[in-house]
Fold:
Amino acid sequence: MSEYRGPNLLSKYSNLLEESHNKLVSWFAEERAKQPMPLYASVDIRDAGWKVAAVDANAYPAGFNNVGKSDREYLSKQLQEWLVSEHPHASWLHIWPEKHTRNKGYVENLIVLRSLLLKCDCKVTVGSNDLSEFSELEGISGTLELSKTIADGILKVDGETPDVLILNNDLSHGPIEGIGDIPVAPPQAMGWFQRRKSSHFRNVQYYIDKAADIIGIDPWLLGTHWFVSEDKCLEKETCRIELAAQVDSFLDFLREKYDSYGIEGEPVIFVKNDSGTYGLGIIEISSGEELLNISNRKVNKLTYGKGGSEAVDFLLQEGVPTVLKIGDYVIEPCTYGAGGRSCATFYRANAKKGEMTNLNTPSTVFLTSEEVQSQPGGGEIIAAVDNWHALVAELAMLAMATELAELTSD
Structure:
């Protein structure tokens, strides 16, 4: 039995969304014209039935291999449109990857990304100076050939310089040095060495408010409530006491929202590294007292970032349960976009986790849209892709463009 029950507001308001379609299309076009859109992005979405929200947005997605084959053609087409618009004379693209040499899933992601970019009528190579000792990497479907890559003031790949560097590395450890003035997409400024999750949610709220106004609904139905704890507050007793009071106030706000909409269940908060990735350092709390009594093990889990980097600031974000299920599996959509447009969706699925739990875990499996469609109830889930899910994904992509503008304004 579900721990959360509430009105299906997304279904109730679907007619409002449909009636607002033309206004939203025009508004999105106006907003996209104001600033460059990202080459690509991925957005994690939670659909509770009463609300839908983008709960994370990644500037350097690493799961292209999870995109179903039926979605890849459109995704490739949108990537090509972006490249023609932003780099019309580019004929050689070079992908700069992460250092996951033993992760066959990640290598398969590179294989698929390369295949998508090859359809753009460009030469596409892969490599970095960190992978100079390897000539190829093993993926799931085969091997990926690597090109000799040197970054020593000017980027050289097999002795020559490509036209555009395609970044598939989240830069948790800092920007790439020594590549010269080659165009980079997505830009290095969006790397986790300086980007913050809280900046994204601050920026996306403007777009959520505008879209909600156009549709005529409460903005809370399209996003999450959140705040930030700064300067290693969890390690300081006085600060943690103040933070616990903030947590209780935050939860009281959510309870009022739940009561006003007739939602049953206790709200929770997810605590995340404000500059982290891969779902590392995430815990769930349901009271200020729970935060006060948090164990050292959980604090260590929170403060441990990718590659052993230490977290300093934390995002405290409203948890959104998922109403989406396939058999015994709870699922959540992950949407991939190009040029600010939603292009493809696959689904994280987990039979061991609950409806409120973080699904970005090792026990999660991935389902393509075709696999979801083939299951009982799958058609209804897929139907949401082109309306509410696409809406919040594209709002997130607008916010990512604004984030980039802020990070490069100096």
User: Anything to note?
Assistant: The chain has two domains: 9-60+195-407, 88-182.
